[in-house]
DNA sequence: CGCAGAATTGATACATCTCAAGCTGGGTGG
DNA sequence: CCACCCAGCTTGAGATGTATCAATTCTGCG
Protein backbone atom coordinates (compact mmCIF):
# COMPACT_ATOMS: atom_id res chain seq x y z
CA UNK A 1 0.00 0.00 0.00
CA UNK A 2 2.94 2.28 0.64
CA UNK A 3 5.08 3.31 -2.31
CA UNK A 4 8.22 1.21 -2.54
CA UNK A 5 11.05 3.46 -1.50
CA UNK A 6 13.17 2.04 -4.30
CA UNK A 7 10.62 3.11 -6.90
CA UNK A 8 12.04 5.62 -9.36
CA UNK A 9 8.84 7.63 -9.64
CA UNK A 10 8.37 11.37 -9.57
CA UNK A 11 6.87 12.47 -6.29
CA UNK A 12 6.27 15.83 -7.82
CA UNK A 13 3.44 15.98 -10.35
CA UNK A 14 5.34 18.56 -12.38
CA UNK A 15 7.95 15.91 -13.26
CA UNK A 16 5.41 13.16 -13.96
CA UNK A 17 5.79 11.47 -17.35
CA UNK A 18 2.03 11.33 -17.87
CA UNK A 19 1.36 14.80 -16.53
CA UNK A 20 -0.11 16.17 -19.75
CA UNK A 21 -2.11 13.13 -20.86
CA UNK A 22 -3.65 11.67 -17.70
CA UNK A 23 -6.79 12.63 -15.82
CA UNK A 24 -4.84 15.49 -14.24
CA UNK A 25 -3.81 16.97 -17.59
CA UNK A 26 -5.93 20.09 -17.31
CA UNK A 27 -5.28 20.82 -13.66
CA UNK A 28 -3.94 24.17 -12.53
CA UNK A 29 -1.03 24.22 -10.07
CA UNK A 30 -3.30 24.60 -7.06
CA UNK A 31 -5.55 21.72 -8.18
CA UNK A 32 -2.46 19.63 -8.77
CA UNK A 33 -1.35 20.39 -5.27
CA UNK A 34 -4.60 19.12 -3.83
CA UNK A 35 -4.29 15.96 -5.93
CA UNK A 36 -0.78 15.46 -4.58
CA UNK A 37 -2.19 15.34 -1.08
CA UNK A 38 -4.37 12.32 -1.78
CA UNK A 39 -2.12 10.39 -4.11
CA UNK A 40 0.20 7.47 -3.49
CA UNK A 41 2.11 5.12 -5.76
CA UNK A 42 1.73 1.38 -6.03
CA UNK A 43 3.85 -1.06 -8.03
CA UNK A 44 2.84 -4.41 -9.45
CA UNK A 45 4.77 -7.38 -10.78
CA UNK A 46 3.98 -8.95 -14.15
CA UNK A 47 1.05 -11.32 -13.69
CA UNK A 48 0.00 -9.73 -10.44
CA UNK A 49 -3.66 -8.92 -9.98
CA UNK A 50 -4.38 -5.29 -9.19
CA UNK A 51 -7.99 -5.94 -8.30
CA UNK A 52 -10.62 -8.62 -8.74
CA UNK A 53 -14.06 -7.94 -10.13
CA UNK A 54 -16.48 -7.48 -7.26
CA UNK A 55 -13.81 -6.43 -4.78
CA UNK A 56 -14.14 -3.27 -2.83
CA UNK A 57 -12.14 -0.51 -4.49
CA UNK A 58 -11.21 2.49 -2.38
CA UNK A 59 -9.09 4.23 -4.96
CA UNK A 60 -9.01 5.30 -8.56
CA UNK A 61 -5.71 5.48 -10.42
CA UNK A 62 -3.68 6.44 -13.45
CA UNK A 63 -1.27 4.01 -15.05
CA UNK A 64 2.13 5.71 -14.87
CA UNK A 65 4.20 3.04 -16.58
CA UNK A 66 3.76 -0.51 -17.81
CA UNK A 67 0.81 -2.36 -19.30
CA UNK A 68 -2.23 -3.77 -17.53
CA UNK A 69 -5.41 -5.45 -18.72
CA UNK A 70 -9.06 -5.11 -17.86
CA UNK A 71 -10.97 -8.34 -18.31
CA UNK A 72 -14.09 -10.28 -17.62
CA UNK A 73 -14.39 -13.99 -16.90
CA UNK A 74 -17.43 -16.24 -17.25
CA UNK A 75 -18.26 -18.98 -14.77
CA UNK A 76 -16.77 -21.68 -16.98
CA UNK A 77 -13.51 -19.82 -17.43
CA UNK A 78 -13.99 -18.17 -20.80
CA UNK A 79 -12.37 -14.75 -20.54
CA UNK A 80 -12.54 -11.63 -22.65
CA UNK A 81 -10.24 -8.68 -22.31
CA UNK A 82 -12.27 -5.46 -22.38
CA UNK A 83 -9.55 -2.88 -21.88
CA UNK A 84 -5.83 -2.52 -22.45
CA UNK A 85 -4.38 -0.06 -19.97
CA UNK A 86 -1.32 1.85 -21.09
CA UNK A 87 0.46 4.77 -19.43
CA UNK A 88 -1.91 7.69 -18.69
CA UNK A 89 -5.02 5.47 -18.80
CA UNK A 90 -7.47 5.76 -15.94
CA UNK A 91 -8.57 2.86 -13.71
CA UNK A 92 -11.71 2.73 -11.60
CA UNK A 93 -14.92 4.67 -11.60
CA UNK A 94 -15.75 7.59 -9.36
CA UNK A 95 -18.93 6.85 -7.44
CA UNK A 96 -18.57 3.10 -7.74
CA UNK A 97 -17.63 1.13 -4.67
CA UNK A 98 -16.77 -2.21 -6.22
CA UNK A 99 -14.64 -3.10 -9.20
CA UNK A 100 -16.63 -4.27 -12.22
CA UNK A 101 -13.70 -6.00 -13.94
CA UNK A 102 -10.48 -7.81 -13.19
CA UNK A 103 -7.34 -5.68 -13.52
CA UNK A 104 -4.02 -7.43 -14.02
CA UNK A 105 -0.49 -6.21 -14.65
CA UNK A 106 1.15 -7.84 -17.67
CA UNK A 107 4.47 -6.00 -17.33
CA UNK A 108 5.86 -4.24 -14.26
CA UNK A 109 3.30 -1.52 -13.58
CA UNK A 110 3.35 1.66 -11.53
CA UNK A 111 0.07 3.29 -10.69
CA UNK A 112 -0.64 6.71 -9.28
CA UNK A 113 -3.57 6.07 -6.94
CA UNK A 114 -5.99 8.58 -5.46
CA UNK A 115 -8.16 7.76 -2.48
CA UNK A 116 -11.63 7.53 -3.93
CA UNK A 117 -13.67 9.69 -1.55
CA UNK A 118 -11.35 12.69 -1.61
CA UNK A 119 -11.02 12.30 -5.35
CA UNK A 120 -14.78 12.42 -5.75
CA UNK A 121 -14.94 15.55 -3.63
CA UNK A 122 -12.19 17.12 -5.66
CA UNK A 123 -14.12 16.31 -8.82
CA UNK A 124 -17.20 18.00 -7.47
CA UNK A 125 -15.31 21.15 -6.55
CA UNK A 126 -12.97 21.55 -9.51
CA UNK A 127 -14.35 21.15 -13.04
CA UNK A 128 -11.03 20.42 -14.76
CA UNK A 129 -10.78 16.87 -13.52
CA UNK A 130 -14.30 15.93 -14.52
CA UNK A 131 -13.87 17.58 -17.90
CA UNK A 132 -10.71 15.65 -18.62
CA UNK A 133 -12.24 12.42 -17.37
CA UNK A 134 -15.22 12.91 -19.66
CA UNK A 135 -12.93 13.42 -22.61
CA UNK A 136 -10.93 10.30 -21.76
CA UNK A 137 -14.09 8.24 -21.22
CA UNK A 138 -15.49 9.33 -24.58
CA UNK A 139 -12.21 8.28 -26.21
CA UNK A 140 -12.39 4.92 -24.48
CA UNK A 141 -15.96 4.47 -25.62
CA UNK A 142 -14.90 5.11 -29.20
CA UNK A 143 -12.09 2.61 -28.82
CA UNK A 144 -14.51 0.08 -27.32
CA UNK A 145 -16.79 0.50 -30.32
CA UNK A 146 -13.96 -0.08 -32.76
CA UNK A 147 -13.10 -3.14 -30.74
CA UNK A 148 -16.71 -4.36 -31.03
CA UNK A 149 -16.44 -4.25 -34.81
CA UNK A 150 -13.26 -6.26 -34.54
CA UNK A 151 -14.82 -8.87 -32.24
CA UNK A 152 -18.08 -9.19 -34.13
CA UNK A 153 -17.08 -9.04 -37.76
CA UNK A 154 -13.38 -9.43 -38.42
CA UNK A 155 -11.60 -12.63 -39.42
CA UNK A 156 -8.80 -14.05 -37.29
CA UNK A 157 -6.19 -12.65 -39.64
CA UNK A 158 -7.77 -9.20 -39.63
CA UNK A 159 -7.96 -9.30 -35.87
CA UNK A 160 -4.24 -9.99 -35.52
CA UNK A 161 -3.31 -7.30 -38.02
CA UNK A 162 -5.61 -4.84 -36.23
CA UNK A 163 -4.11 -5.57 -32.83
CA UNK A 164 -0.58 -5.14 -34.15
CA UNK A 165 -1.44 -1.83 -35.76
CA UNK A 166 -3.22 -0.60 -32.64
CA UNK A 167 -0.19 -1.34 -30.49
CA UNK A 168 2.14 0.14 -33.08
CA UNK A 169 0.04 3.29 -33.21
CA UNK A 170 0.00 3.72 -29.46
CA UNK A 171 3.75 3.20 -29.24
CA UNK A 172 4.26 5.73 -32.00
CA UNK A 173 2.07 8.22 -30.17
CA UNK A 174 4.67 8.24 -27.40
CA UNK A 175 7.83 8.06 -29.46
CA UNK A 176 6.33 10.37 -32.10
CA UNK A 177 7.51 8.31 -35.05
CA UNK A 178 5.60 8.77 -38.30
CA UNK A 179 3.15 6.00 -39.17
CA UNK A 180 4.57 4.95 -42.51
CA UNK A 181 7.22 2.68 -43.90
CA UNK A 182 9.29 0.53 -41.56
CA UNK A 183 8.36 0.34 -37.93
CA UNK A 184 9.20 -1.89 -34.99
CA UNK A 185 8.02 -2.33 -31.45
CA UNK A 186 7.80 -4.70 -28.50
CA UNK A 187 4.69 -6.77 -28.10
CA UNK A 188 3.81 -6.59 -24.42
CA UNK A 189 1.27 -9.42 -24.58
CA UNK A 190 1.55 -13.19 -24.51
CA UNK A 191 -0.28 -15.23 -27.14
CA UNK A 192 -2.89 -16.02 -24.54
CA UNK A 193 -3.43 -12.35 -23.70
CA UNK A 194 -3.69 -11.58 -27.40
CA UNK A 195 -6.29 -14.33 -27.71
CA UNK A 196 -8.27 -12.86 -24.81
CA UNK A 197 -8.12 -9.47 -26.46
CA UNK A 198 -9.29 -10.76 -29.83
CA UNK A 199 -11.86 -13.35 -28.85
CA UNK A 200 -9.77 -16.19 -30.30
CA UNK A 201 -7.91 -19.20 -28.95
CA UNK A 202 -4.18 -18.93 -28.45
CA UNK A 203 -3.61 -21.59 -31.11
CA UNK A 204 -5.43 -19.53 -33.70
CA UNK A 205 -3.41 -16.48 -32.69
CA UNK A 206 -0.20 -18.43 -33.07
CA UNK A 207 -1.19 -19.74 -36.49
CA UNK A 208 -2.18 -16.34 -37.82
CA UNK A 209 0.94 -14.67 -36.51
CA UNK A 210 2.97 -17.39 -38.22
CA UNK A 211 1.04 -16.84 -41.43
CA UNK A 212 1.66 -13.07 -41.42
CA UNK A 213 5.31 -13.78 -40.72
CA UNK A 214 5.74 -16.34 -43.50
CA UNK A 215 4.11 -13.93 -45.94
CA UNK A 216 6.53 -11.18 -44.94
CA UNK A 217 3.93 -8.79 -43.52
CA UNK A 218 5.83 -8.90 -40.24
CA UNK A 219 9.13 -10.26 -38.97
CA UNK A 220 9.83 -11.52 -35.47
CA UNK A 221 13.05 -10.95 -33.56
CA UNK A 222 12.92 -13.21 -30.58
CA UNK A 223 9.45 -13.80 -29.26
CA UNK A 224 8.43 -10.27 -28.47
CA UNK A 225 10.06 -7.86 -30.91
CA UNK A 226 7.93 -7.22 -33.99
CA UNK A 227 9.29 -5.61 -37.15
CA UNK A 228 6.83 -4.22 -39.67
CA UNK A 229 8.73 -3.60 -42.91
CA UNK A 230 5.80 -1.77 -44.52
CA UNK A 231 3.13 -0.35 -42.28
CA UNK A 232 0.70 0.26 -45.15
CA UNK A 233 0.83 -3.46 -45.96
CA UNK A 234 -0.13 -4.30 -42.38
CA UNK A 235 -3.00 -1.80 -42.52
CA UNK A 236 -4.27 -3.52 -45.68
CA UNK A 237 -4.66 -6.69 -43.67
CA UNK A 238 -6.79 -5.08 -40.96
CA UNK A 239 -9.90 -4.79 -43.15
CA UNK A 240 -10.29 -1.14 -42.12
CA UNK A 241 -10.89 1.71 -44.52
CA UNK A 242 -7.64 2.54 -46.24
CA UNK A 243 -8.05 6.23 -45.39
CA UNK A 244 -9.44 5.34 -42.01
CA UNK A 245 -8.98 6.79 -38.60
CA UNK A 246 -9.29 10.45 -39.47
CA UNK A 247 -12.14 11.11 -37.09
CA UNK A 248 -11.39 13.75 -34.51
CA UNK B 1 -35.30 20.03 -39.96
CA UNK B 2 -38.27 21.75 -38.41
CA UNK B 3 -40.31 19.85 -35.84
CA UNK B 4 -43.38 18.33 -37.43
CA UNK B 5 -46.31 20.33 -36.17
CA UNK B 6 -48.28 17.13 -35.74
CA UNK B 7 -45.70 15.74 -33.36
CA UNK B 8 -47.08 15.15 -29.87
CA UNK B 9 -43.91 16.23 -28.09
CA UNK B 10 -43.58 18.42 -25.03
CA UNK B 11 -42.18 21.80 -25.90
CA UNK B 12 -41.68 22.42 -22.26
CA UNK B 13 -38.82 20.48 -20.65
CA UNK B 14 -40.79 20.14 -17.44
CA UNK B 15 -43.26 17.86 -19.22
CA UNK B 16 -40.62 15.86 -21.06
CA UNK B 17 -40.87 12.09 -20.64
CA UNK B 18 -37.09 11.71 -20.38
CA UNK B 19 -36.58 14.77 -18.21
CA UNK B 20 -35.11 12.89 -15.25
CA UNK B 21 -32.97 10.37 -17.14
CA UNK B 22 -31.44 12.25 -20.07
CA UNK B 23 -28.37 14.46 -20.22
CA UNK B 24 -30.47 17.28 -18.75
CA UNK B 25 -31.48 15.23 -15.69
CA UNK B 26 -29.49 17.28 -13.18
CA UNK B 27 -30.23 20.70 -14.59
CA UNK B 28 -31.72 23.43 -12.44
CA UNK B 29 -34.69 25.41 -13.81
CA UNK B 30 -32.48 28.23 -15.09
CA UNK B 31 -30.11 25.79 -16.83
CA UNK B 32 -33.11 24.03 -18.33
CA UNK B 33 -34.31 27.33 -19.62
CA UNK B 34 -31.04 27.96 -21.41
CA UNK B 35 -31.20 24.48 -22.91
CA UNK B 36 -34.70 25.19 -24.15
CA UNK B 37 -33.36 28.12 -26.13
CA UNK B 38 -31.04 25.96 -28.21
CA UNK B 39 -33.18 22.88 -28.61
CA UNK B 40 -35.40 21.70 -31.43
CA UNK B 41 -37.16 18.45 -32.18
CA UNK B 42 -36.65 16.18 -35.16
CA UNK B 43 -38.63 13.11 -36.15
CA UNK B 44 -37.47 10.13 -38.16
CA UNK B 45 -39.26 7.32 -39.97
CA UNK B 46 -38.35 3.67 -39.42
CA UNK B 47 -35.34 2.86 -41.58
CA UNK B 48 -34.41 6.51 -42.01
CA UNK B 49 -30.79 7.47 -41.52
CA UNK B 50 -30.23 10.14 -38.90
CA UNK B 51 -26.62 10.68 -39.85
CA UNK B 52 -23.87 8.93 -41.79
CA UNK B 53 -20.45 8.25 -40.37
CA UNK B 54 -18.09 11.00 -41.52
CA UNK B 55 -20.85 13.55 -42.06
CA UNK B 56 -20.67 16.93 -40.47
CA UNK B 57 -22.75 16.96 -37.31
CA UNK B 58 -23.82 20.34 -35.96
CA UNK B 59 -25.96 19.04 -33.14
CA UNK B 60 -26.01 16.61 -30.28
CA UNK B 61 -29.28 15.05 -29.18
CA UNK B 62 -31.29 12.95 -26.77
CA UNK B 63 -33.59 10.19 -27.97
CA UNK B 64 -37.04 11.17 -26.71
CA UNK B 65 -38.96 8.19 -28.05
CA UNK B 66 -38.37 5.24 -30.34
CA UNK B 67 -35.33 3.09 -31.01
CA UNK B 68 -32.27 3.90 -33.09
CA UNK B 69 -29.02 2.11 -33.78
CA UNK B 70 -25.40 3.18 -33.90
CA UNK B 71 -23.37 1.10 -36.29
CA UNK B 72 -20.20 0.73 -38.24
CA UNK B 73 -19.78 -0.68 -41.75
CA UNK B 74 -16.66 -2.08 -43.37
CA UNK B 75 -15.77 -1.48 -47.01
CA UNK B 76 -17.11 -4.85 -48.09
CA UNK B 77 -20.42 -4.34 -46.35
CA UNK B 78 -19.94 -6.24 -43.11
CA UNK B 79 -21.68 -4.21 -40.44
CA UNK B 80 -21.61 -4.27 -36.66
CA UNK B 81 -24.01 -2.47 -34.43
CA UNK B 82 -22.11 -0.69 -31.66
CA UNK B 83 -24.92 1.03 -29.82
CA UNK B 84 -28.63 0.60 -29.28
CA UNK B 85 -30.21 3.98 -28.62
CA UNK B 86 -33.33 3.97 -26.47
CA UNK B 87 -35.25 6.89 -24.98
CA UNK B 88 -33.00 9.17 -22.89
CA UNK B 89 -29.80 7.99 -24.62
CA UNK B 90 -27.43 10.64 -25.90
CA UNK B 91 -26.26 10.97 -29.51
CA UNK B 92 -23.17 12.76 -30.70
CA UNK B 93 -20.03 13.96 -29.01
CA UNK B 94 -19.36 17.47 -27.79
CA UNK B 95 -16.18 18.76 -29.38
CA UNK B 96 -16.42 16.47 -32.37
CA UNK B 97 -17.32 17.93 -35.71
CA UNK B 98 -18.01 14.76 -37.67
CA UNK B 99 -20.06 11.70 -36.83
CA UNK B 100 -17.97 8.62 -36.11
CA UNK B 101 -20.80 6.12 -36.69
CA UNK B 102 -23.98 5.66 -38.68
CA UNK B 103 -27.17 6.42 -36.78
CA UNK B 104 -30.44 4.92 -38.04
CA UNK B 105 -33.99 4.93 -36.76
CA UNK B 106 -35.49 1.45 -36.49
CA UNK B 107 -38.88 2.61 -35.21
CA UNK B 108 -40.41 6.08 -35.45
CA UNK B 109 -37.96 8.24 -33.50
CA UNK B 110 -38.16 11.69 -31.96
CA UNK B 111 -34.95 13.40 -30.97
CA UNK B 112 -34.41 16.47 -28.88
CA UNK B 113 -31.50 18.18 -30.63
CA UNK B 114 -29.22 20.90 -29.30
CA UNK B 115 -27.08 23.02 -31.56
CA UNK B 116 -23.58 21.81 -30.89
CA UNK B 117 -21.67 25.05 -30.34
CA UNK B 118 -24.09 26.57 -27.85
CA UNK B 119 -24.35 23.20 -26.13
CA UNK B 120 -20.57 23.08 -25.73
CA UNK B 121 -20.57 26.56 -24.28
CA UNK B 122 -23.34 25.64 -21.92
CA UNK B 123 -21.33 22.61 -20.82
CA UNK B 124 -18.35 24.79 -20.08
CA UNK B 125 -20.36 27.21 -17.99
CA UNK B 126 -22.66 24.87 -16.08
CA UNK B 127 -21.21 21.75 -14.46
CA UNK B 128 -24.45 19.78 -14.20
CA UNK B 129 -24.61 18.87 -17.85
CA UNK B 130 -21.03 17.66 -18.00
CA UNK B 131 -21.46 15.70 -14.79
CA UNK B 132 -24.53 13.93 -16.08
CA UNK B 133 -22.90 13.28 -19.44
CA UNK B 134 -19.89 11.75 -17.70
CA UNK B 135 -22.14 9.47 -15.72
CA UNK B 136 -24.04 8.39 -18.84
CA UNK B 137 -20.83 7.85 -20.78
CA UNK B 138 -19.39 5.68 -18.01
CA UNK B 139 -22.58 3.62 -18.06
CA UNK B 140 -22.33 3.24 -21.81
CA UNK B 141 -18.72 2.18 -21.49
CA UNK B 142 -19.72 -0.51 -19.01
CA UNK B 143 -22.45 -1.67 -21.37
CA UNK B 144 -19.97 -1.70 -24.26
CA UNK B 145 -17.65 -3.91 -22.22
CA UNK B 146 -20.42 -6.38 -21.43
CA UNK B 147 -21.17 -6.38 -25.10
CA UNK B 148 -17.53 -7.15 -25.90
CA UNK B 149 -17.73 -10.26 -23.75
CA UNK B 150 -20.84 -11.26 -25.65
CA UNK B 151 -19.23 -10.70 -29.05
CA UNK B 152 -15.93 -12.32 -28.21
CA UNK B 153 -16.86 -15.33 -26.14
CA UNK B 154 -20.52 -16.24 -26.17
CA UNK B 155 -22.16 -18.89 -28.35
CA UNK B 156 -24.95 -17.96 -30.75
CA UNK B 157 -27.57 -19.28 -28.34
CA UNK B 158 -26.10 -17.33 -25.42
CA UNK B 159 -25.99 -14.21 -27.57
CA UNK B 160 -29.69 -14.46 -28.40
CA UNK B 161 -30.66 -15.11 -24.79
CA UNK B 162 -28.49 -12.18 -23.67
CA UNK B 163 -30.04 -9.80 -26.18
CA UNK B 164 -33.54 -10.78 -25.15
CA UNK B 165 -32.75 -10.31 -21.49
CA UNK B 166 -31.09 -6.94 -22.14
CA UNK B 167 -34.13 -5.66 -23.98
CA UNK B 168 -36.47 -7.11 -21.36
CA UNK B 169 -34.48 -5.41 -18.62
CA UNK B 170 -34.53 -2.04 -20.32
CA UNK B 171 -38.26 -2.28 -20.94
CA UNK B 172 -38.79 -3.22 -17.32
CA UNK B 173 -36.73 -0.25 -16.19
CA UNK B 174 -39.37 1.98 -17.72
CA UNK B 175 -42.49 0.04 -16.83
CA UNK B 176 -41.02 -0.87 -13.44
CA UNK B 177 -42.07 -4.51 -13.57
CA UNK B 178 -40.13 -6.90 -11.37
CA UNK B 179 -37.56 -9.05 -13.14
CA UNK B 180 -38.83 -12.48 -12.24
CA UNK B 181 -41.39 -14.99 -13.40
CA UNK B 182 -43.45 -14.29 -16.51
CA UNK B 183 -42.59 -11.31 -18.64
CA UNK B 184 -43.40 -10.08 -22.11
CA UNK B 185 -42.28 -7.30 -24.40
CA UNK B 186 -42.04 -6.11 -27.98
CA UNK B 187 -38.87 -6.80 -29.91
CA UNK B 188 -38.08 -3.58 -31.77
CA UNK B 189 -35.44 -5.18 -34.01
CA UNK B 190 -35.60 -7.20 -37.22
CA UNK B 191 -33.63 -10.45 -37.44
CA UNK B 192 -31.05 -8.60 -39.47
CA UNK B 193 -30.66 -5.88 -36.85
CA UNK B 194 -30.34 -8.56 -34.17
CA UNK B 195 -27.65 -10.21 -36.27
CA UNK B 196 -25.79 -6.92 -36.60
CA UNK B 197 -26.01 -6.44 -32.86
CA UNK B 198 -24.74 -9.91 -32.07
CA UNK B 199 -22.09 -10.44 -34.72
CA UNK B 200 -24.05 -13.27 -36.36
CA UNK B 201 -25.85 -13.85 -39.65
CA UNK B 202 -29.60 -13.41 -39.76
CA UNK B 203 -30.03 -17.12 -40.55
CA UNK B 204 -28.22 -18.10 -37.38
CA UNK B 205 -30.36 -15.66 -35.39
CA UNK B 206 -33.49 -17.17 -36.87
CA UNK B 207 -32.39 -20.71 -36.09
CA UNK B 208 -31.47 -19.94 -32.50
CA UNK B 209 -34.69 -18.03 -31.86
CA UNK B 210 -36.59 -21.02 -33.24
CA UNK B 211 -34.61 -23.34 -30.99
CA UNK B 212 -35.36 -21.29 -27.86
CA UNK B 213 -38.99 -21.23 -28.90
CA UNK B 214 -39.28 -24.96 -29.52
CA UNK B 215 -37.67 -25.62 -26.14
CA UNK B 216 -40.21 -23.38 -24.44
CA UNK B 217 -37.72 -20.78 -23.18
CA UNK B 218 -39.67 -18.16 -25.10
CA UNK B 219 -42.97 -17.95 -26.98
CA UNK B 220 -43.69 -15.73 -29.95
CA UNK B 221 -46.97 -13.92 -30.55
CA UNK B 222 -46.87 -12.58 -34.06
CA UNK B 223 -43.41 -11.64 -35.24
CA UNK B 224 -42.55 -9.04 -32.66
CA UNK B 225 -44.15 -9.90 -29.35
CA UNK B 226 -41.97 -12.08 -27.12
CA UNK B 227 -43.32 -13.89 -24.08
CA UNK B 228 -40.86 -15.16 -21.49
CA UNK B 229 -42.70 -17.63 -19.24
CA UNK B 230 -39.81 -17.89 -16.78
CA UNK B 231 -37.25 -15.12 -16.76
CA UNK B 232 -34.79 -17.12 -14.67
CA UNK B 233 -34.77 -19.82 -17.32
CA UNK B 234 -33.85 -17.25 -19.97
CA UNK B 235 -31.08 -15.90 -17.75
CA UNK B 236 -29.67 -19.43 -17.44
CA UNK B 237 -29.22 -19.46 -21.18
CA UNK B 238 -27.20 -16.23 -21.27
CA UNK B 239 -24.08 -17.79 -19.77
CA UNK B 240 -23.85 -14.93 -17.25
CA UNK B 241 -23.31 -15.36 -13.55
CA UNK B 242 -26.56 -16.45 -11.98
CA UNK B 243 -26.27 -13.71 -9.37
CA UNK B 244 -24.94 -11.28 -11.94
CA UNK B 245 -25.52 -7.64 -12.58
CA UNK B 246 -25.30 -6.38 -9.03
CA UNK B 247 -22.53 -3.93 -9.71
CA UNK B 248 -23.45 -0.34 -9.00
C1' DC C 1 -55.92 -10.94 -53.91
C1' DG C 2 -51.42 -10.64 -54.52
C1' DC C 3 -47.20 -8.57 -53.76
C1' DA C 4 -42.77 -7.48 -51.15
C1' DG C 5 -40.20 -7.61 -47.21
C1' DA C 6 -39.20 -10.56 -43.44
C1' DA C 7 -38.47 -14.91 -41.63
C1' DT C 8 -37.77 -19.87 -41.76
C1' DT C 9 -35.60 -24.01 -43.16
C1' DG C 10 -32.30 -27.06 -45.63
C1' DA C 11 -27.77 -28.64 -47.48
C1' DT C 12 -23.13 -27.81 -47.68
C1' DA C 13 -18.70 -25.30 -46.94
C1' DC C 14 -15.32 -23.56 -44.15
C1' DA C 15 -13.08 -20.94 -40.32
C1' DT C 16 -12.01 -21.58 -35.95
C1' DC C 17 -11.90 -24.56 -31.89
C1' DT C 18 -10.36 -28.61 -29.49
C1' DC C 19 -7.30 -31.99 -28.19
C1' DA C 20 -2.72 -33.55 -28.51
C1' DA C 21 2.12 -33.72 -29.41
C1' DG C 22 6.49 -31.38 -29.74
C1' DC C 23 9.50 -27.41 -29.77
C1' DT C 24 12.23 -23.42 -27.87
C1' DG C 25 14.80 -20.51 -24.86
C1' DG C 26 16.12 -18.99 -20.56
C1' DG C 27 16.79 -20.04 -15.77
C1' DT C 28 18.30 -23.27 -12.06
C1' DG C 29 20.44 -26.51 -9.35
C1' DG C 30 23.32 -30.55 -9.02
C1' DC D 1 29.05 -26.74 -17.13
C1' DC D 2 25.51 -29.22 -18.48
C1' DA D 3 21.09 -31.56 -17.84
C1' DC D 4 16.83 -30.51 -16.66
C1' DC D 5 12.63 -28.02 -16.36
C1' DC D 6 8.91 -25.17 -17.40
C1' DA D 7 6.18 -21.56 -19.39
C1' DG D 8 5.31 -20.00 -23.65
C1' DC D 9 4.80 -21.16 -28.17
C1' DT D 10 4.21 -23.85 -32.51
C1' DT D 11 2.21 -27.29 -35.35
C1' DG D 12 -0.94 -31.12 -36.60
C1' DA D 13 -5.39 -33.68 -37.23
C1' DG D 14 -9.98 -33.90 -36.52
C1' DA D 15 -14.47 -32.00 -34.58
C1' DT D 16 -17.84 -28.46 -34.59
C1' DG D 17 -20.38 -24.16 -34.78
C1' DT D 18 -21.52 -20.77 -37.74
C1' DA D 19 -21.57 -18.88 -42.47
C1' DT D 20 -23.04 -19.35 -47.06
C1' DC D 21 -26.07 -20.30 -50.77
C1' DA D 22 -30.62 -21.49 -52.04
C1' DA D 23 -35.47 -22.42 -51.69
C1' DT D 24 -39.83 -21.86 -49.45
C1' DT D 25 -43.11 -19.94 -46.36
C1' DC D 26 -44.99 -16.49 -43.67
C1' DT D 27 -47.06 -11.80 -42.73
C1' DG D 28 -48.79 -7.37 -43.17
C1' DC D 29 -50.59 -4.26 -46.31
C1' DG D 30 -52.06 -1.72 -50.53
Report on the structure:
Two copies of one chain form a homodimer. Chain A has 248 residues and is of the alpha+beta class. Chain A has two domains: 13-129, Sandwich (Jelly Rolls), CATH 2.60.120.10; 154-236, Orthogonal Bundle (Arc Repressor Mutant, subunit A). The first copy, chain A, is built from seven helices and eleven strands. Chain A has a four-stranded antiparallel beta sheet. In chain A, a hairpin with a 3-residue loop joins strand 10 (219-221) and strand 11 (225-228). In chain A, helix 2 packs across helix 3 (127-153), helix 4 (156-175) crosses helix 6 and helix 5 packs across helix 6. The termini of chain A are far apart. The model of chain A is unreliable at 1-8 and 244-248 (pLDDT under 50). Chains A and B meet through strand 5 and helix 3 of A and strand 5 and helix 3 of B. The structure holds a DNA duplex (30 and 30 nucleotides).
Concise account of the structure shown:
The structure is a homodimer of 248-residue chains. The first copy, chain A, has 248 residues and is of the alpha+beta class. Helix content of chain A is 38%, strand content 21%.
Low-confidence stretches of chain A: 1-8, 244-248
Query: How would a textbook summarize the main sheet of chain A?
Result: 4 strands, antiparallel
Number of helices of chain A: 7
CATH-level-4 superfamily name of the largest domain in chain A: Jelly Rolls
- Residues in helices of chain A, as a percent range: 25-40%
**Helix vs. strand class of chain A:** alpha+beta
Average pLDDT, all residues of chain A = 91
Amino acid sequence: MVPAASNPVAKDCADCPIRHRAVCARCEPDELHRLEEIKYYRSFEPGQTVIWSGDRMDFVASVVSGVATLSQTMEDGRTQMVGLLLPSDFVGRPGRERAAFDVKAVTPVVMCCFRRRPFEELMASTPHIGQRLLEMTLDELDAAREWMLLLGRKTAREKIASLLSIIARREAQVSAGPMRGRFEFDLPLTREAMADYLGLTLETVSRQVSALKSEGVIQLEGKRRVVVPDFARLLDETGDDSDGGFLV
